[in-house]
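Format notes (please read before filing issues)

Several people have asked whether sequences and structure tokens are stored in separate files. They are not. Every record keeps both together, in the order shown below: the sequence lines, then the token lines. Line labels are part of the format and must not be stripped during preprocessing.
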Amino acid sequence: MRKMFLGPVVSATCRICGKKVGVAYTAMLAVIPFLAAIVFSAFVESFLLKAALWVGGFITTSAVHMRWVTLQAR
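Then the structure lines:
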């Protein structure tokens, strides 16, 4: 879960080895599903559908980030 808060310029100290780790700039692409959900929700009138889009976008972004974004030594 800590990896979700890392960014290209935000690093953290590894709990195992004590070195600094971060993620690549390409990790920012993982946020595309959430941004798309925000854009599409602007065209939807139903609050429940808007909420479903936001939650679905967040879950998809989280899954992509956890599965395909790798840590890099800094």
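For reference, the curators noted about this record: The two ends are 19 Å apart (CA to CA). The chain has one domain: 2-73.
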